[in-house]
Amino acid sequence: MKKLLKLFGVSAMCMALLLSLVACGEAPQEKKAEEPAKTEEAAAPAQEEPKTVKAGFVYVSPVGDAGYSYAHDQGRQAVDALDWVTTSFVESVPEGADSERVIRNMARKGFDIIFTTSFGYMDPTIKVGKEFPDAKFMHCSGFKKSANVTNYFGRVYQARFLTGMVAGAMTKTDKLGYVAAFPIPEVIRGINAFAVGARQMNPDVEVRVVWTKTWYDPALEKDAAKSLLDAGCDVIAQHQDSPAPQEAAEEAGMYSIGYNSDMSSFAPKAHLTSAIWNWGPVYTKTVEQVRDGSWKGDESIWWSMEDGVVDIAPMGPMVPEDVKSAVMAKRAELVKGNDICFVGPIKDQSGTIKIADGEKATDAQLHDMMWFVEGVVGTVK
């Protein structure tokens, strides 16, 4: 009997041990059922952080000039407000060797896109672009380009055409003065558009040009405006960055047309309107292209009034309502994309037809414009 009980005890122990082993063997099967979900979560690809774009700007004059560099810096500030962009700028950089040094320093510091905003920065930009093929460059107002350099500008001649209409309607002497920067197509094209617009309102008008060969020299530019006022001009326009010509016109009790930004605060009694820039859309679109990889070099881009890049400032209270209506009607055509500024017949100073009757100037003709239209008094030099 003891033997039987002992045998039964051993059997019971073996059964308990077997059940324990079976239980231990089932546990891994339950874990295997959970593993696929954990493995799947671990295999999910990590999302990349959005690219931060580092943008540099080089200016030819102070950002406080109320003119060209001021307008560019307003565009930079619009870009800087984006949370994925960081910007930096250097102001009052002379064209030539100094600009090359500044542009190269920016490229060395790893800027993703560098905007060089003056015509005279063209060759330095091309040169530095070759040294830093992985960097991207945008040069304003020039004509040269390369694999990593695109040139850009706006059809500001459209705004010039409208401001010319205002000046032509407001002159009493039929003499308009134009304080001009450098004899390059950009400036000549603007003078011509101004003259064409003015003569649409007053066929007897003439536009007298004085060259300063400066972008920013308030004293010299004010003196140039005074010389035009002394010659009988009663409306002064300009292509430089300072409001000095505006101030000269107000001091003489005459009218003025500003450039780059709304200059009415500097000459409230004289200021009729201004041809103005809005660089924000240009710079925002460019940094977005850099960020998403769609930016391309070796291009020439020319934005228009249709794109919202150029426009005119509000016309002053001294401008009659019928003049405002006529100007705004032409502006509406430009905003729709109908470029009406250089439609033939257009003659040069000698009376030679340069743009045939009914034809519009081509972009090539506008880019290469080195002649004055009929009604302009001055020389292209």
UniProtKB/TrEMBL annotation:
CDD domains found in the cross-reference section: PBP1_BMP-like
Top-rank taxon, per record: Bacteria
UniProt entry keywords in alphabetical sequence: Signal
InterPro entries: ABC-Purine-Binding, PnrA-like
Name assigned to this protein: BMP family ABC transporter substrate-binding protein
Domain ABC transporter substrate-binding protein PnrA-like, residue spans: 53-326
Residues in the signal sequence: 1-25
